[in-house]
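Batch queue: ligand-bound targets. Current item pairs a single chain with pyridoxal-5'-phosphate. No template structures supplied; prediction is de novo from sequence plus SMILES. Inputs echoed for audit trail.
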Amino acid sequence: MEKIKRNILLNPGPATTTDTVKYAQIVPDICPREKEFAGMMKGIRNDLVKIVHGDPEKYTSVLFCGSGTLNIDVVLNSLLPEGKKVLVVNNGAYSERAVEICRYYGLPHIDLSFPVDEVPDLERVEQTLKNDPDIALVHTTHNETGTGILNPVREIGKIAHRYGAVFTVDTTSTYAMRPINIEEDNIDFCMASAQKGLTAFTGLSFIVGKRSEIEKSRDYPRRSYYCNLYMQYDFFERTGEMHFTPPVQTIYATVQALKEYFAEGEEAKWARHTRVFNAINEGLDALGFRQVIKPENRAGLVCSAVYPDDPEWSFEKIHDYCYERGFTIYPGKISTTNTFRLCALGAIDEPDIKAFFEIFRDALDCCGVSVPVKYDVGGRDK
Ligand SMILES: *Cc1c(COP(=O)(O)O)cnc(C)c1O
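Prediction returned. Tokens below.
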């Protein structure tokens, strides 16, 4: 097996993969309607529930072909009963996307928004639910990938359940990285796609959630043909297959990625991501970079650094310098502040980050950016 050039992706997914996962895609051609292929998907479905410690009697998983946004679309459009309302607890770009999906489907919704660098105020969440008995679905994002803030899902879920609402959480940027216990975390539905924490490839997305709620949703309005949760679940239960053509090669890679996930183990994997994250923070601190999210609110996977006030700073130039040397950095996703992101996803470890910061430091020198980086007095103090 020939080694493939290894790029270190510090963007928030797709992530750096192992060669064994890359090569797992190279298989004899197969029609995905064969029993052999359905058997593979059954194994994946079970493993996906196991990763979040779900009781297989109560929880199931449903696979879709598409990128992660598809999951947000599916849970919102499929799990809302007629005449009821969605509450989005929104403090960032991915919850904003959920609001947009509600708007596109014309779903009655409340956009309960909070500043992007603050944890949502639980009292306001509770008041909103108390004041509006029509809310049947509460949605939020676990790790807002745009900033790296960690949201208190266990607490939000507890409140949602107190008012009888279903709780759906976008865990795309924590699933299979930061440990989740679906039941203890009060999550009814979580989601991710194969190219993030599982460190496989794009094309496969999945929702893990409560069987009883999916079955209830059979009688809810069918608002989408391709993206309906009950329809896809029902097809899987009856035939073991995806309703429409699955991403065949990505599924082979995911089987291998799951093997590697369980071989490394939840605890060891999270410890590795934490090592990487700490190394990123140390590197940024040493160069004087400010970050958007306070250390105590960081989810431990995404660092969001503020552009320095230096006329020589050019994200593009620094990006290109690093990219040419095998390291990918990523722009931020906040409309009010210019930021860039460095993420701890993927099959990488501490030495990769040490190597990155040598290149990054050279890039700053090469551009003439002074180090430690400067911020204007009276500028944003973060
Ligand atoms: C990556 C990501 C998604 C999915 O984005 P796609 O571009 O559709 O893959 C959704 N939610 C969060 C929190 C993410 O980090």
